Amino acid sequence: MFIKPDDALLKAMVRFLDPTYRCFTFNKVDIVPTIKEYSTLLHYDFRDPLRIY
Question: Ranges for the DUF7745 domain (predicted)?
Answer without folding.
Answer: 6-48
